[in-house]
User: Fold this.
Amino acid sequence: MESTHNSAKIYLLQEDREKSFKHWPFSDDKQCSIQKMAEAGFYWHGTETEIDIAACFVCGKELDGWEESDDPWSEHRKHAPQCPFVKFGRPETHLTCDEFVTIMMATVKTRYVNNYTTLKTNGKLLIEKKRKEMEKLLRTN
Ligand SMILES: [Zn+2]
Assistant:
C-alpha cells in the first residue's frame, strides 16, 4: 500500500518543502542536503523506517536510495525529464511569476490526475471484490 500520510499537502514553496524533512540521512554540507533537495522540488516522503524517500511536489516522482554525492537536480532530471519544474531547471526564487503560475497549475493537474487514477483503481478493486463475494454466495446457495 502506498503511503499517503503527507501527500495531501501541496508543497508549493521551497520553505515548506524544507520543513517537511522530519528525518534525512544527509547533513547540510552534502550535495543532497535538505536545502538542496527542497530547491530541486523535493519534499520528504519517508517513514520512520525508510527515511531517505523524497518526492517531487510537481510531478510526484518518488525517489529513494539517495547517496550523499547525488545531485538532486540531476537525479530529478534523470528520473523525471518530463517534469515542468525540471524543464525550467531553476530554484523557485529564479522563476518569473508566469513560470511559477505554470508550475502551480501543473502541480494541481498532477494531483487531480493522481486522485482520479486512485479513485478509479480503488473503485475497480471494490467492484471486483463485491463480484467475487456475490459469486461465492451464489455458489453456496
Ligand atoms: Zn518533478
